[in-house]
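During the first year of the project, the team set up a workflow for recording each protein of interest as an amino acid sequence followed immediately by a discrete structure-token representation. This format lets reviewers and collaborators read both layers of information side by side without switching files. As required by the reporting guidelines, we include two representative entries from the current panel. The first entry is reproduced here exactly as it appears in our internal archive.
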Amino acid sequence: MNSGAYFEMEREICKIIRKHLNDDQIEENYQNACNKYFPDGGCNLDTMGLVVHECRKVALSEIPQEEFTPQQLLFIRKAWKLNV
């Protein structure tokens, strides 16, 4: 998958997430992930991937699979390494 197609797929999945979660829920997921991996603060760019992964996992757990196309589910499993 080329980078343009990759980012387009991410964009479409994020639209679905935003349809189901409001800004406060997304912020709460982010804060919880930061506290889980960095309880003393100190989050940095090298380890931010852990926070992103956790945020995606929590968000996707709250959305019915039927909202996603088979291609999106495959992308989530392969690219994001998440089982939904």
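The second entry, processed by the same pipeline in the following quarter, appears below.
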Amino acid sequence: MIKVLKDKLVANIKPERVNTTLDLFNEEGKKNALTAAQLLKEKGCDTIALGCTGMSTINIYKKIKENLGIPVIDPVLATGAIISYLNF
């Protein structure tokens, strides 16, 4: 993300105590992911691009969008959307 967004990247935060996708399957992991998203908004992010496919697995983008009212880019859904437009 840093290489692509360069100076447009406002912040990059990893949720506390989330080290693998498995950490997202418990309530603490989900809560920490939402807290990290809130911190990103407070730092000035107007859009959040999730950097882990595990976040897609738990559908956290919906909760973030509902709670914070800003766009959230889910990496799996975004990839699927791009692929659907390609001609093979």
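For the second entry, the following points were noted during internal review. The helical segments are 2-5, 27-42, 53-57, 60-68, 75-85. The radius of gyration is 13 Å. Both points are flagged for discussion at the upcoming steering committee meeting.
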